[in-house]
Please model this.
Amino acid sequence: MDVFTVSFFGHRILEEWKDREIEEVIKMLLIKYEYVEFLVGRSGDFDQLVSSTIRRVRREWGSNNSSHTLVLPYLTAEFKNNEEILSKYYSEIEFCEASINAHFKSAYQIRNREMVDRSNLIVCYLKNDFGGVYQTIKYAEKLGKRIINVAMK
Model:
């Protein structure tokens, strides 16, 4: 089975909610590809918006041809305290091997690059020309990854 992998990156605080735009992208991918692996984080507004949209679309359309995977940079207190709930919310939960022992300040960027490396498509909410999301998208551009910036829609 061909797996098409999509990673999502966005600012912790959103100026505007782009749930319709994200929903359109998710639906298009589910129609176009045999199986879609959605990789997400859990660090702010964009991550929460993306995950709730993925869950809603998978519930409405069925979830047989997709997975919703939380990729954490390391074991967090939030995960330890909420493992059962999180395990029900996501299809899968992964800990990024490359960042699991890294210093916490660099762990997210290491995790983000690993997610980019395994992705066919990057969906982002990027409005700033600085910060972690900006660095991640620059890395994706350098690799020639296809990028959809929903902040510009």
